[in-house]
Amino acid sequence: MITVDIHEYAEGAILLDGLEDAIVGIVEEFGNGRRILYSKPKIIQILCERDLMTQGEAEEFYDFNILGLYAGEQNAVFLDLMIEPIKKGDIIVYRASEKID
Predict the structure, then answer these.
(1) Sequence-distant (≥ 6) Cβ neighbours of residue 28 within 8 angstroms
(2) What's 22's DSSP letter?
(3) Cβ proximity of 48 and 58 under 8 Å
(4) Residue 101 has pLDDT above 60, yes or no
(5) CA 4 to chain centre
(6) Are 79 and 100 contacting, i.e. CB atoms less than 8 angstroms apart?
(7) Are 76 and 18 a contacting pair, CB within 8 Å?
(8) Maximum C-alpha span of the chain
(9) Residue 7: φ, ψ to 5°
């Protein structure tokens, strides 16, 4: 296991306070610095458990206050659905993973 100093590795990236357990990675894009990748399902789970929101309340809060937040070029990005490619003959199909680790 490699330990990463997220503040150093993704210098300048926007971190969402209180949602550290929902971080699943760091992404990069040409022309922009690195950004923090959060799991949407984990954010919803945190909001339900920590803030005692219903599923609907958590999703609405996420949509308006987290997904809708623009805090700069290195704004956080969100993984909504994890998929994996499966080769079937000459074609590739994609299967949704049930859990984002």
Answers:
(1) 34, 35
(2) G
(3) yes
(4) no
(5) 17
(6) yes
(7) no
(8) 48
(9) -70, -35
To the nearest whole number, what is the mean pLDDT of the chain? 93
CB of 23 closer than 8 Å to CB of 37:
yes
Look at the pTM and tell me if it is higher than 0.85: yes
Give the start-end residues of each E strand in 46-101: 77-79, 83-88, 91-96
Which pair of tokens denotes residue 6? 């997220």
Contacts (Cβ under 8 Å, ≥6 apart) of 67: 78
pLDDT band at 31 (very low <50, low <70, confident <90, very high): confident
In 10 A of CB 76, how many CB atoms?
Answer: 21
Q: Residue 27 forms beta bridges with which residues? A: 35
Per-position b or e across 18-54, b if 16+ CB within 10 A of its CB: ebeebbbeeeeeeeeebbbbbbbbbbbebbeeeeebe
Domain ranges of the chain: 6-96
The full length of the chain comes to 101
